[in-house]
Amino acid sequence: MKKINYLIAGLAVPFALALQGCSDGGASGSTEAGNGSAGDAENEEYPVRDIEMVVGWGAGGGSDTFARAIAAELSDILDTNINVVNNEGASGAIAGDYVQEQDPDGYTFWAISSNYPINVAQGNTPHGLDTYTPIGRVQDDIVTIQTKGGEFEDIEDFLDTARNETITVGGTGSLGFDELILTQMELEADVDFNFVPYESAGEMHAALLGGHIDAQVEQFSPTIGQVEAGEIDILLAFNDESVPGYEDVPYSMQYGWEVTEGQNRGLVVHSDTPDYIVDILVEALEEAKEQPRYKEYEEDSYLHLRDGWLPSDDWAAELENVVANYEELLEVLGQ
Amino acid sequence: MIEGILTGITNIIQPIHIVFLLFGLFIGFLGGATPGISGTMLVIILLPITYGLDPTPAFLLLTAIYATAVFSGSISAILFKTPGAPESVATVFDGYPMAKNGQAGKALGIAILSSAAGGIIGTIILIFLTPTLAGFALQFSAPEFFALAFLGLTVVASLSGGALIKGLIGVLFGLFIATIGRDVITGTNRYTFDSNYLLMGIDFIPVLIGLFAIAEVLRKFQEVELNKKVGKVITKLPDLKLFKKISGVIGRSSLLGIFVGILPGVGATTASMLSYSEAARWSKRKDKFGTGIPEGIAAPESANNAASMGAMVPLLSLGIPGSATTAVILGAFILHGIQPGPMMFSAQGDLVYTIFIGLLLVNVFIIFLSIPFIKLFSQIVKIPYMVIGPLILVFCVIGTYAVRNSIFDVWVMLGFGLLGYFFLKAKFPLAPVILGVVLGPLAEENFRRALLMGNNDFMIFFTRPISLTLIILAVISLLFPIIKNMIDKKKNHRDQAA
Predict the structure, then answer these.
(1) What is the CATH number of the domain that holds A204?
(2) Residue A192 CB coordination number (10 Å)
(3) Dist CA A311 CA A313 (whole Å)
(4) Are B83 and B91 in contact, with CB atoms under 8 Å apart?
(5) In 3D, which of B289, B1, B221 has the Cα closest to residue B124?
(6) By the 8 A CB rule, do B322 and B310 touch?
(7) Residues A97 and A157 occupy one common structural domain
(8) What are phi and psi of A223, to 5 degrees?
């Protein structure tokens, strides 16, 4: 009997811990809703406790570093702790589910990237655009086409080659952001590439440097070292004007190709979050992205090359456009 | 280079640097030995602390943790059949049986020596050959990765402990588990049953913790070994005779480990699995592997430490992380305003050589400092199993949950725990299952990626020299036992006729 008790105790402790972790937000959230007396619900103080910021990707990646950098500023501005939690999986959809399960009280943020509108376009998440309220888009990271140093003269040489022989282009993930951008480019410039998906950007960079693929879809910062050393050339930036500091790199609109999508990063909350909290957060986020420490991180990571700021409503409208665009592209890809 | 090495030595002997190195070493020991807390996780946890430090102490701390955690995962693998870190999964195969035979101290001694030797050989190669090796790593692409994984999979016969059919079932089962989730190449959902959790696939860590640790706890509780103790653990480094016996395996496995480590996307776990397989394949007593022999510990332990050093090659010279932990370290470099890559050696030469010397020192320290640490740590085995068993469960649950904050992973781990228990009862070999789970994704993705690169022409595997060589080796090793069998039969026949 005693033995069994030990076993049960041993099993119970971790489960109790895990369950507590799951229900924490819910429990305290509902108490608060109960406290809010009728009449002045709108004037309730916010925030009064710690905030959780959920990231759908692992620690160390682009979404994660963004979340941590912005959380540090917001924490100072809102004068509360903000804990960044990585809820990995299913292209960020797991984190999105989690946010929907929490009370819409403004204590759970979701740091999203362009993968969320892609998931919506693909029908991979039950939670559509109307289930979240955008706080603001902070980054609009410029995407480029990169080739091995000296391999191609310029973008026209590259496209001419692609019209005569097979050109393989790497990107991360299948039917993800990179593939959709490349498909858009194919349509605009009337070429066909052979897309090869990679699971990690590192494997893709190695394949490019080793000459196993001809080009890659990538942002500025991950390969800036190789670009400066001349081992990788940036042939084209998907932007509507020349990129400051990289004036010699051609941009897509220069040729009339309407591909200017960037990797977007920003914050959203549950759509039932009270308006006054959303207003507080929009204001706080706008202030946060201007802080010197955050600015320094943006510059170190080459995220300052294009201003990404879009406040709540503007971003909501933009997200509608983006999803419609992705749906079209996915149709082209036969999905 | 000599100048760089001397600067590195001068830098490292500053007291503050030594303090950080030892601090990293201690954290690495502790975290690595705790099941579910891997080196990757430790580096992530300590990352914020390093923001405020100068680059030199910051990276000495992170790389010391990184190098040590890979070793100390073997302590709990040997004592409790619970790999403290994924890299030490193959150490369980022979380490735990040896401990069960009452030779836990000997097993730990072999692990210490092999780890340190692998790490030292790895670092020396790192110091002298980084640029050369980086160029070599770039020759590898999808076809070569597939061929390498294929070669690894063909060893299943040697790992089945004589039960080839069970071994084949095991490896196929492992390969099947690896297919669950969203397909990396086409984005198709496989066996996901509309569950977002299955969409992200079955993670390797809950599977291995379940199959080994949970299954073993269940077995012990059922077999009423509750009051039995592992006994006193006195770590004994190998004597000269034993060292001579395993030095060949250590040397070969270290070289294989570095080589696998420098390949981007393939880490120390794959390296230790591959080198265990190869040690078994080329051994004269392959049937003894899995029963608790020194070679079976020396091979994975020297390979995983060497591979961790190998993973620094593409990180420093190309800016490409070779494994999960080096990916986090890459992030740390960028946060310190340092861009690893082709310019790293000229722009940050002092820092690079200081890190190199630091790594060398850490691997030497492992030999001297792990014995007192294990002495401390193995006090745990004095506690009766009816207390330890539930504690191991608690750590496994917390550790598994912490990997990606997923309660689903905890269920997966418990499910595989039950499965592992039945496998134990059915005397079903676990090594082939692990082989399938580790090498499955590597083989499948790269097979299909290679076909995409080669316009769906299978010739891409045979027209590239490295890929062709590896495939020929795999085919030979598949056919060799059959041919040998035939020759033996003929010989017997002739002997009888005569």
Answers:
(1) 3.40.190.10
(2) 10
(3) 6
(4) yes
(5) B1
(6) yes
(7) no
(8) -120, 15
Long-range contacts of B153-158 (CB under 8 A, 24+ apart): B153/B435, B153/B436, B153/B439, B153/B443, B154/B474, B154/B477, B154/B478, B155/B277, B155/B278, B155/B280, B155/B281, B155/B435, B155/B477, B156/B432, B156/B435, B157/B481, B158/B277, B158/B280, B158/B281, B158/B286, B158/B289
Rounded mean pLDDT of B74-86? 88
Q: Which of B148, B172, B238 is nearest to B470 (CA)?
A: B148
Say whether pLDDT at A250 is over 90. Answer: yes
Name the most confidently modeled range: A304-318, B40-54, B387-401. Answer: A304-318
Distance between CA B190 and CA B175 in Å, rounded? Answer: 13
A219 and A275 share a domain? Answer: no
> Could you report the per-residue pLDDT of B125-168, keeping only the tens digit for each?
999 888 888 888 888 889 999 998 898 888 776 677 677 888 88
Last residue of a domain, one of A231, A255, A279: A255
Q: What are B144's two structure tokens?
A: 């070569």
Single out the residue in A202, A230, A255 at which a domain terminates. A255
Tokens 């608790």 locate to B292
- Nearest by CB to B391, which of A10, A18, A205? A10
Residues 141-180 of A with CB under 8 A from B: 166, 168, 173-176
Same domain as A314, residue A304:
yes
**CB interface of A with B, residues 243-282, below 8 Å:** none
B418: tokens are 């039950």
What single letter denotes the amino acid at residue A84?
V
Same domain as A104, residue A172: no
Look up the pTM and report it.
0.81
User: Is B449 in the A-facing interface, judged by CB distances under 8 Å?
Assistant: yes
Q: What residues of chain A, 176 to 235, have a C-beta less than 8 Å from chain B?
A: 176, 194-200, 202-203, 205-207, 209-213, 221, 223-226, 228-229, 231
Query: Does A301 map to a domain?
Result: yes
Give residue B75's pLDDT band: very low, low, confident or very high (50, 70, 90): very high
A60 and A201, same domain (yes or no):
no
Neighbouring C-beta atoms of residue B492, cutoff 10 Å = 10
Q: Are A159 and A134 part of one and the same domain?
A: no
Residue A119 and residue A109 share a domain: yes
Is ipTM over 0.90?
no
Average pLDDT, chain B: 87
Ramachandran assignment for A137, one of left (phi > 0), alpha (psi -120 to 50 degrees), beta (any other): beta
